[in-house]
Predict the structure.
Amino acid sequence: MKIYLLNILLLIIYSMIFLQDTPRKNHKIFCLLASLNWIILSGLRDLSIGPDTLKYGYYFEKAKNISWATLWSERVNIFIHETLGKDPGYIVFQKIIQLFAANYRAYLIAIALIFTVPLGIWIYKNSANPLMSFIIYSCLFYSFFSITGTRQTVATAMVVFIGYKFIKKGVFLPFLLLVLIAMTIHFSAICYLPFYFIANKEITNRYLLLYGSIFMGTFIFRVSIFRLGSKLIGYDQYLPFEETGTTWTFSVFLMALTILTLLKKNEILKNNKWAKHYINALLIAALFVPLTFVNPAAMRVIQYYSLFIILLVPEIINSFPKRERFFVFFVAASTLILLLIKNNPTYMFFWQL
């Protein structure tokens, strides 16, 4: 736990040096240092940190025993009939990384780089407040993307952080190609495809009325929708009410943030035209919240969209009068840090006993 709080303290120190009325080029240095923190924490963690870390180590060693000749000669069986398991592109991805990273520790560092470098660039290019953005990531998202869920971590880096620039530019084919490749690594990436068509929707009262109706329908028919969605994305092994974990804290936070965002939407959109992307992403994430009460695995879909909270919260802060912004920032940051402390996550570097 102490290492996570130290990380946030370092973020604050970096911000005092590089984000206080300095040229924007210094924002790049801040994002570089903040990203480096998470590359170190993710890549050098002990194998006991993260519920899937050991499991992915087994996959990594297993992939070593499968030759490129086998992958090529059985490509149809692997990619069409999934003879090597679900998400067949992941083994190809592992084999490519193994050309440069022969052991699992090096692989973990490579994964940390593949995810965190695009994250840092994404925040640098789009965030109105990089410090708040990294605090949000450090308190809400690190536990999934930095220490577990390797396949979806890679897929998310591709479609969200890299793919977003194609959404902003309105270039569909490169975005579609990224989604198709990411789907072979983690099929849930297909859930992000609709965002290309929804991101630019204007946040009108009529749109919100339609959204509210769809949300109510999702809540009422959540079990049926979960069953259908699980089959469509190929993860029908997740059954309703099968898992005992809950997502109440994050779900309540997400819904409260959605309400606040809609109350402040006019000021937010006035300050930043791209903020409609962030709001639309939040609305999609909130739309899937009822499904998490059926099975927490629905969070896999929400994660693709809820990441835009990282960009949205700074816009919400900027929507307040200047004299109130520091107070709002302080309350938001304190709440996130208290939530982190409440969760009391553990951490060890790999050399610690």
Q: What stands out?
A: The chain is about 70% helix and 0% strand. The two ends are 16 Å apart (CA to CA). The mean pLDDT is 90. Residues 204 and 226 are 28 Å apart (CA to CA).
